[in-house]
Design goal:
The structure is a single chain. By secondary structure, the chain is an alpha/beta fold. The chain has 16 helices and 20 strands. It has helices at 7-12, 53-67, 72-75, 78-94, 96-107, 111-132, 171-184, 199-211, 225-233, 246-255, 281-293, 313-326, 345-360, 393-396, 412-420, 435-444, and strands at 19-21, 24-26, 33-38, 43-49, 140-141, 150-158, 161-165, 188-192, 218-220, 239-243, 262-266, 272-275, 305-309, 364-367, 383-386, 403-409, 427-431, 449-452, 471-472, 485-493. Strands 14-15-16-13-12-17-18 form a seven-stranded mixed sheet, with helices on both faces. The longest helix is centred in the first third of the chain and has 22 residues, at 111-132. The termini are far apart. Bound molecules: adenosine-5'-diphosphate. Adenosine-5'-diphosphate binds at residues 165-167, 192, 194-195, 224-225, 228-229, 232, 244-245, 248, 251-252. This is Phenylacetaldehyde dehydrogenase. Keywords: Oxidoreductase. GO terms for molecular function: oxidoreductase activity, acting on the aldehyde or oxo group of donors, NAD or NADP as acceptor.
Length: 495
């Protein structure tokens, strides 16, 4: 066992983790468990209960009962909910080191990156939405019916039981992206963490109970795709909020048709990062490195397709390649590491397969390698690929690893067409010191988030989501509650 581990983390890993249903920690009804693995060492961390459709039924009954009028949750005032949310944010902060270690063990990312990024933002998310709990206002709307008088108004009401299904790249943060807006609006939640990274969501479940979230309001069901599918098919679930692959997103959209549950989807991306000749080249290179390799490349808004205007192509490629080669890849607990491993063996094989495939197709590895780094752990050296054409798999597919392609371009029209030539539309970026070029090209890019002369600049106040096959709906910011509320119109005749 890693000597740096906090006692609280050791204790959390010392016994099998269970499901959270109706405020109780319980085994899966059929007793199934699975191992969660440390991607830096490939060692098993702990066994975790694997929820089946029977457990999904139990959780739906609990979440429904917690939602119904007359329940403690339904009787909480918006102010009570606001205070509760704030309290949870503070509790996460108080346990931040513990969460950071658990996240680093389970996902592989650096402890420091988890601490400063995932965990700090998760806490802030609770505090940001604490403010919205008391501000979910309706409107009063005039009616024009001759000879009669009406008072018409709208109310924003919770949707009901929300299933949140999340991926492994930002495990705690993605769980909070679903739980926080859902409970802010008064819904109840069943969260299914990713099978690769269930630990921080389970630890959060403990803190939610400690903070005073009533039983059944948030249930946590670890499991695989079968658990997610059982939630999506369940007629007692009113809404699914999903983040993950476009492939699974399509399955969810189809499976949700049974009871026409509401669906919001945050799916894959293959973001173009466009650097013009007139950009601040030093800043653009640094942005391309951060945009391409952040979170071990496992981030759906990473700028994985670099388009560089011909006048600065060689300079940018040389700069990004030098930076990529200098990144020290290693265990997330080693303070000298600058990048951790990929999350799983499956992901490791997939990413190395894409790099090897590009080499076989005739592309050039300007930095990085198709070989694994070290003989243990799922490490990959950040890779920059040139000599790529638009048809190659590395250029069309979301790889979800530290792999960036670079292609030269000549004109604005040419690069806009190439950048938009993808089924995805999650993020895009432009580097130019000409304000007109930056804003004009930004407007022409078909993506939910566009960065101009920056990358990964972010805040919980900003809505995010995808155009095209990158999803349905928007999360966070003032728009982030819309998908978690039903709008009711009330018409009263004044007699
Ligand atoms: P990734 O490719 O990033 O692993 P996935 O889309 O495969 O992303 O998985 C994201 C989440 O969706 C995980 O929690 C996974 O268990 C869950 N999942 C996988 N298949 C299904 C499915 N058919 N229905 C519902 N959830 C699923």
């Amino acid at each position: 066992m890693n000597p740096a581990l906090l006692p609280a983390v050791r204790s959390f890993l010392s016994s099998p983790r269970q499901l959270l249903i109706d405020g109780e920690w319980v085994d899966a009804k059929d007793g199934r468990t699975f191992a969660t693995v440390n991607p830096s060492t490939e060692e098993e961390l702990v066994q975790v209960a694997h929820a089946s459709s029977v457990d999904v039924d139990r959780a739906v009954v609990a979440a429904r009962a917690a939602f119904e009028s007359g329940s403690p949750w339904s009787k909480m005032t918006p102010r009570d909910r606001s205070h509760l949310l704030w309290r949870i944010g503070d509790l996460i902060d108080a346990h931040a080191d513990e969460f950071a270690q658990l996240e680093a063990l389970d996902n592989g990312k650096r402890v420091e990156a988890a601490r400063e990024g995932d965990i700090a933002i998760a806490a802030e998310l609770f505090r940001y939405f604490a403010g919205w709990a008391t501000k979910m206002e309706g409107t009063s709307i005039p009616m024009s019916v001759p000879g009669r008088e009406f008072h018409a108004y709208t109310r924003r009401e919770p949707v009901g039981v929300v299933a949140g299904i999340v991926p492994w790249n930002f495990p705690l943060l993605m769980a909070c992206f679903k739980i926080v807006p859902a409970i802010t609006a008064g819904n109840t939640v069943i969260l299914k963490p990713a099978e690769q990274t269930p630990l921080t969501a389970l630890r959060l479940g403990e803190l939610l109970l400690e903070a005073g979230v009533p039983a059944g309001v948030v249930n946590v069901l670890p499991g695989f795709g079968d658990t997610g599918a059982a939630l999506v098919e369940h007629h007692g679930v009113d809404k699914v909020a999903f983040t993950g692959s476009t492939e699974v997103g399509k399955k969810i959209a189809a499976a949700a048709a049974g009871n026409l549950k509401k669906v919001s989807l945050e799916l894959g991306g293959k973001a173009p990062n466009i650097i013009f000749n007139d950009a601040d080249i030093e800043a653009a290179i640094a942005g391309a490195v951060l945009g391409g390799f952040f979170n071990e490349g496992q981030c759906c808004v990473n700028g994985s397709r670099l388009y560089v205007q011909r006048g600065v192509f060689d300079q940018v490629v040389a700069g990004v390649a030098a930076a990529a080669a200098a990144i020290k890849v290693g265990d997330g607990f080693d303070p000298t590491s600058q990048m951790g491993p990929l999350v799983s063996q499956e992901q490791h094989e997939k990413v190395l397969g894409y790099i090897g495939g590009a080499v076989r197709d005739g592309a050039v590895l300007t930095a990085g390698s198709a070989d694994r780094v070290g003989d243990r752990g799922f490490f990959v050296q950040p890779t920059l690929i040139t000599g790529v054409d638009e048809q190659m798999a590395v250029q069309t597919d979301e790889i979800f690893g530290p792999v960036v392609t670079a292609i030269p371009f000549d004109t604005e029209d040419e690069v806009v067409a190439a950048a938009n030539n993808t089924v995805y539309g999650l993020a895009a970026g432009v580097w130019s010191n000409n304000i007109g070029t930056a804003h004009r090209v930004g407007a022409r890019l078909r993506a939910g988030t566009v960065w101009l002369n920056t990358w990964h600049a972010d805040d919980v106040t900003l809505p995010r989501g995808g155009f095209k096959q990158s999803g349905w709906g928007r999360e966070l910011g003032s728009f982030g509650l819309d998908d978690y509320t039903e709008l009711k119109t009330v018409i009263a005749e004044l007699r």
